[in-house]
Amino acid sequence: MPRSPLIARTVPALRRSLDALRKRKATVALVPTMGALHDGHMSLVRLARRRASRVVVSIFVNPTQFAPTEDFGAYPRTWNADIAKLAAEDVDLVWHPTVEAMYPDGFATRIVPEGPALAGLEDRFRPHFFGGVATVVGKLFTQCRPDVAIFGEKDFQQLRVVTQMAGDLDLGIKVVGSRTVRERDGLAMSSRNVYLSAEERQRAATLYRAMKESAGRIRAGEAIGPVMADGARMIEKAGFALDYFEARHAETLAPVTSRKDGPLRILVAARLGTTRLIDNIAV
Questions:
Q1: Global pTM?
Q2: I need a surface site. Which of 23, 28, 77, 169 has the fewest CB within 10 A?
Q3: 41 is catalytic
Q4: Is the confidence at residue 229, as pLDDT, over 80?
Q5: Is residue 183 domain-resident?
Q6: What percent of the chain is predicted at pLDDT more than 70?
Q7: What value does the mean pLDDT of the chain take?
Q8: Same domain as 115, residue 51
Q9: Which residue among the candidates 38, 41, 128, 249 is catalytic per the annotation?
Q10: 199 and 133 share a domain?
């Protein structure tokens, strides 16, 4: 029978639990999540287990990264199933604070990231988003004081923002990206996939096919501009409303015009019905 992880809901309880975990010079890995856990999250937990002797998973649906028009209230919450999955992976501690614990009355400090947070990708469509992410991740880092933190590559711009923040603020935390886990047809696993209708789910894999075909053509030496235009048309033909489909520098997220500009990453965001999906692959 799997052992249930410890669960902390207040900062003092978290600190006591962490002090107990850190005995005998244990190292700690943190996996920040918003719950509604799937196999992609479990791959992060398994990587965390390989990188440290103790694993902490946070479950917190962060209101400050949702705009008023977005799905904070409807975001899937599956607490019992989440805890069962984490127990099966032998997670040591779950940090599950309330909104009031994270943002008590009088809370007035925000982290305002620049650099990759202003790349003109997610920030162009969700200008509030990375300020909310940076602030909550900054709090999670200072609350949990991990040696390493694991983030999925599916949210690639977020990974670059968090990595930059940890380095710029000298937090002493190694941020590690974990490869995107996909369904058989290539669709990236995401908590929001549950919003897709059966018919939309069939079309959703077009995002991955468009990225894969475009990456192959760029590697073969074709010009980036025409390749990306063809990929965008493929996505829109499948019924998506496209926000962006771009090739960027894989580290800075700066625009590129040629494969010679450096390591490349193709990034996409598009809506299918009411569901917004994001994804990326290396070129």
A1: 0.94
A2: 23
A3: yes
A4: yes
A5: no
A6: 100
A7: 96
A8: yes
A9: 41
A10: no
